[in-house]
Amino acid sequence: MGPGNIQNDEALSVLDWWQLAGVDTMIDDSPRDWLAKAAPVPAIAASTDSPPPPAAEAASPTDLAAVHDALAAMSVPGAGEERLLPEGDVASGVMLMVGMPETSDVMEGHLLSGATGRLLDRMLAAIGRDRASVYLASLLPARPTGGRMDAALAAPAARLALRHVALAAPRILLVCGEDACRALLDSGVAKARGRLHEINHDGMKVRAIATFHPCQLLEHPMQKAAAWADLLLLLGELER
To answer: How far is the C-alpha of 113 from the C-alpha of 136, rounded, in Å?
Structure first.
């Protein structure tokens, strides 16, 4: 090993020591006042590309007309421009809430149409009612892509539906199907049905009963006996 290598090794050893000792600034030949206070760091101007603050949530509807307007204006991914709004008699005392229109409903232009609607008509007739003597509504006014209600869509729809129920103030609410039960009763239909619930929203208390969607009853006829028991529970509450 030559003298040059020894000098290089010694220099590297010294640099390593300085690094371990915390020296992180090279000293230049010009005199410097090491005790002088550092100049303040200028403030960084706010970026013009920063995202805008989130928009304020729309005011809660104050009457049923405003609820209908909110439903008509609701954005539903994958749906066309047509919106199926509530129908029937809001003063009837009986309100039915489903999750969303079926494919046939969109084609017919009203909620619960076709074979599903005919089954609903028979169910209502069994308790002495018809479409004109109930108030029929849905969480969504149109059918989203794939007929699925994701969390981003379900949350605002549930808030509007709760407000809708509070303003309609029915004597009894029949919550039909999985989507509607999860939104209004925070439970699946199988677990929620068979007993009376109470929805307390905006100071308005509404009794509610969960049951299967008529479309599900067409697919699973064995559940019709359970749905009939739910209707009898509803009838009993109306006759109290």
So the answer is: 12
Which pairing describes strands 94-98 and 135-138: parallel, antiparallel, or unpaired? parallel
- Reported as a pLDDT band with limits 50, 70 and 90, residue 97 is very high
CATH code 2.30.30.30 for 69-238: no
Structure tokens at 198: 């109470």
**What is the CA 30 to chain-centroid distance, rounded?**
67
Contact of 226 with 193, CB cutoff 8 Å? yes
State the DSSP H helix or E strand holding residue 87, giving kind and residue range, or none if neither.
strand 87-88
Which residues are CB-neighbours of 235 under 8 A, at least 6 positions away?
127
How many contiguous H segments (helices) and E segments (strands) does the chain have?
Answer: 9, 6
Whole-prediction pTM value? 0.75
Alpha-carbon span 63 to 171, nearest angstrom? 18
Instruction: At 129, list the tokens.
Output: 């009612």
Amino acid at 19: Q
From the number of C-beta atoms within 10 Å of its C-beta (0-12, 13-18, 19+), residue 56 rates as exposed
Query: Contact at 8 Å (CB) between 88 and 132?
Result: yes
